[in-house]
Predict the structure.
Amino acid sequence: MIKYVHFARIAFADFMRAKVRIFSRFLIYMLITWAGVSMWRVIYHTGHAPSGITLTDMGWYIGLAQMLFFLSPRIFVVIDEDVRSGNIAYFLNRPMPYLAMRLSEGLGALAVHILVYFICGAIFLYVFLGGWPSGGLESVALGASLLITASIIHLLFQIACGLSTFWTNDAIFIYHAYQKFMILLGGVYLPISLYPSFLPPDVIHLLPFSAMIGGPASLVLGGQDVWTILALQGFWGILVFMGVRSFYALCLRKVEVNGG
Amino acid sequence: MTNSSVAIDVNHLKKSFRVRRKSGFWKGLVSPVYDTVDAVRDLSFTVQKGERVAFVGPNGAGKSTTIKMLSGILHPTSGHVAINGFTPWIDRKKMAYQIGTVFGQRSQLWYHLPAGDTFELLSYAYDMDRGTFQSRMTDLVDKFDAGHLIEKPVRQLSLGERMRCEIIASLLHRPSVLFLDEPTVGLDVVSKGVIRDLVKAASEEDGTTVLLTSHDTGDMERVCDRVIVIDHGQLVTDQKVKDLRTGYIREKIVTLAMKAPEIALDIAGIRMVEKKPHHLKLAIDTRQISVEYVLQTAMQASSLDDITVEDPPTEDIIKAIYSGVKSEAKRSV
């Protein structure tokens, strides 16, 4: 077990060193959040505000929902590159599973982003939105905590996308498809409770995308119950983990190392 | 029953790949047709512990595929392999502690990190205790003269420097079998020499069994005692490197520096390689004529300032082996 901690530790140190990368990612996060909040500001000013949700609450919701995309490192790119370049050959004959190694590194990098986004992101949102949401700091802390578990599930999904390279030779478009589902069904730009009737919230809430994005973010709106979201995350986390393991076993039989 | 002196035991190894045949978009989607390509066909050989063996063959001969099966990365279509008694694709984890791999065209070092950090990570991956790791790393870094390299991020290293670090990384856990797949590819002459000498010295010191694939005959001559030549996935020859010359050389290269500006040597079995005033370079087919007879004839025509008799380069010997295989194949069609 200790070996995985060291892989995470080195990845943490590596990501901490990349200050330009951290800064540019955070800049993009601020821009996207600003765009999302500005859109809602227009809606509120035209008198179409959803009842019971203040603009500040909505701003915090958008800020937390967007955060998920920035917390996890782009681990699917690393796996895609390993498969396409053939470097995976090196990692397969090590006395530790390749996926566990990459997941440990992903968790190390995630820890860096948690520090940056939970501190700087909270300060940015507080200043930009002019205060805490109605649920107070406590609701933000709860939502943020669930974003950590959500990011781990997101890492597992990314691993599955990366492994798809064994068949598709390019994981990017698989990841993009997954990302579109997250945006569409996760409640990234508006809370799931406001979804149109043909996308019934009761069903959408059960999907992993909602458990990863809309669920944790909705805590600042006084939405879903924390334990329900956590239970859904646990269910999807275990399911995706088992799926990834089976998929990896299938990939090992498919290995044909590129380039001789 | 496994012989304890055998490090690598390969029996009737076969690997076939299914390759999708090119066809129109819709046809390929609805009813794809596959061809079977045999990368390795019925390959058998053994390598004794501590031996250094070169695995040579032209592009597409099946060298890398074989190494990847031996190191547990690829599953064979059929056949049996034992590395120190382990079946690589079944006992992958157990075997991982006993083997090291170096793939010349790949990298196991973390690109943005100093190589020293990768060594540290690998020591954890191989469950090395801190004392053993520190002494082993110090020892290898000294031998490979890499003290100044391991603090730099890998992206700042030259190819030769990176390859030295790659080999250290592979030797760190003291593997008893080292697989090297084209370790000197892309390196300059000096770096090649350094890598060859270091691999050989490390193998001699630790008794490491080495299986090396390369297109460069220099790797074979400087590092290995034995050569296995394969082509089209089949064994062509398996012998000591020094015996290659006696088995396959049909020519001797003779260079003459003469007093006379030129001499006529119109003898069957002689091929002119180079002709300049006072200088002749000849290839003599020793099956048709002896070197002694040619030299006597030359000395009768002119007095000589200098005589050099050489074997053709090893590269030519390997070429001769390949072309021998091709002409055999043509004859059998």
Notes: The mean pLDDT of chain A is 91. Residues 98-129 of chain A form the longest helix (32 residues). The interface with chain B takes residues 2-3, 6-7, 10, 13-14, 17-18, 85-87, 89-96, 101, 253, 255-257, 259-260 of chain A (CB under 8 Å).
